Amino acid sequence: MKFKLPAFLENIESPVEGEVALRKYAANPLAFGGDGSPDLFSSVGNVAGDGDAIVIGIDEVGRGPLAGPVVACAAVLKSPDALLTLNDSKKLSRPKREAMFEQVKDACACYAIASASVEEIDEMNILEADFLAMRRALQALGFPGLNETAPEIPIEVKGSFADLTTNHQSLATLIAVDGNLKIHGVPAEKQMPIVKGDGRIASISAASILAKVFRDRYMDKLEELYPGYGFDKHAGYGTKAHLDAIRRQGFTPAHRKSFHPKGL
């Protein structure tokens, strides 16, 4: 099922503004026309005070390339305005993303970057592999009820959800997923898909940048392993230079068998 952008986010002008609105929603859905369920986003059935909630931004990178893993990040910001320069990673140049990488990590109360391998993509399809990477990231942060295998690429993680509570108080929690789909295998009532969320919600923007830099650096290593393909330049996407390299040198183990373009 595909979801539309929630009405209360339609006129958001910045990721920080969107983060504030989403935290208020997660803490008190009734104020935004929610169904009134007391456990809508709370792990123990209580609704926190206005604005007192955890928003977990999730984004992915690597659905479309012909080679390399799909990478997902789950990120929780220390505050909505922890880093005012946050935006969709696709709108930032690679040098800008690299320059912001450590700043974004510092702005996060916790984050985890996980992946699904080329073999897993070919075995289960790219969408399900994408969801697998997202579940692995959530599991690494301590999200309950998940039991995924470890990925081929070690997960990078800082902190956990347990670090975000004080005096054992449970906070309302909402998973903000970039796009129009909910993550398979994660309770639907805990999630809200946000169309173009990486430009609307600061925590999704943070996840977007962290996932993109992490994958770019992995693709740099693939270029060292398989020189001449230009993985450090096109990150595995089907550019003319990449297709020409495949014609010259053939496919590598890093290429997705299920993604072979016609004519190759």
Brief account:
With 264 residues, the chain is α/β, with parallel strands linked by helices.
Q: Which radius of gyration do the C-alpha atoms yield?
A: 19 Å
Largest sheet: 6 strands, mixed
| Secondary-structure content class | alpha/beta
Spatial order of strands in the largest sheet: 4-3-2-1-5-6
Number of helices: 7
What would your notes on this structure say?
The protein has 264 residues and is of the alpha/beta class. The chain has a single domain (14-217), classed as Nucleotidyltransferase, domain 5, CATH 3.30.420.10. Helices cover 33% and strands 15% of the residues. It has helices at residues 15-27, 94-107, 118-124, 126-140, 202-225, 231-234, 240-249, and strands at residues 53-61, 70-77, 108-116, 156-158, 172-178, 191-194. It has a six-stranded mixed beta sheet with strand order 4-3-2-1-5-6, with helices on both faces. A hairpin with an 8-residue loop joins strand 1 and strand 2 (70-77). Helix 2 crosses helix 5 (202-225) and helix 3 packs across helix 4 (126-140). The chain is globular. The two termini are 34 Å apart.
Topology (SSEs and partners):
Blueprint: H1 15-27, E1 53-61, E2 70-77, H2 94-107, E3 108-116, H3 118-124, H4 126-140, E4 156-158, E5 172-178, E6 191-194, H5 202-225, H6 231-234, H7 240-249
Parallel strand pairs: 1-5, 5-6
Antiparallel strand pairs: 1-2, 2-3, 3-4
Helix pairs in contact: 1-5, 2-5, 3-4
